Amino acid sequence: MRVVVGFFAAVLAAYLVGCLAVSQGNIAAVTAMGFEITLGQRWQTWLHDLTHMVNIYLPLIAIAYLIALPVTAGIIRLTAAQRWVGYVAGGFVALIAIHVTIKLVLGMSGVAPTRTLVGLVMQGVAGAVGGYCYYKVTSFKAVG
After folding, report:
1. First-last CA distance in the chain
2. I want to staple 6 with a disulfide (CB 3.0 to 4.6 A). Which of 14, 79, 123, 138 is the partner?
């Protein structure tokens, strides 16, 4: 049960941070054109992205984690790596892989900020946050 809860926590965390990175990446492009954006507008943009990317981006993250988390678990077992390092790295790679795969298969970026290295890395950071959440939820300590 802990693995299932960890999976959903990871997907949700990556989605929240990933949407924030998309919103702020798009806003950075707007401000680069000389427009001023208030903190309230940034907040509204993030909320808009959260509610409007759920049908496409959230399932992509879930699919990426369905692949990445078991692969990461296998690598951790084979290498005796620290679990937290493995899941953070696995989450990072999973979200980068989404965007690179979309670019290679469709010839376009699914979300505009991933056209830049910073935007792509920020999606990786979102994946790393999700991976860390998975690690925390699935870790347990013996009591006593």
Report:
1. 22
2. 138
> Which residues make Cβ contacts (< 8 Å) with residue 36, sequence separation at least 6?
none
* Phi, psi for residue 27 in degrees, rounded to 5: -65, -35
Contact between 98 and 61 under an 8 Å Cβ cutoff? The reply is yes
What pLDDT is attached to residue 92? 98
Of 111, 132, 128, 134, nearest to 19 by C-alpha is 111
In which region does residue 63 sit, left (phi positive, over 0), alpha (psi from -120 to 50) or beta (all else)?
A: alpha
10 near 126, Cβ under 8 Å?
A: no
How many Å separate Cα 127 from the centre of its chain?
3
Query: What residue spans of 33-116 are helical by DSSP H?
Result: 39-52, 57-79, 83-106
Can you say whether the dihedral through the CA atoms of 85, 112, 42, 53 is positive or negative?
negative
Tell me which residues of the chain have a pLDDT lower than 50.
none
Q: What is the pLDDT of residue 144?
A: 53
What is the residue whose two structure tokens read 């399932």?
59
pTM: 0.90
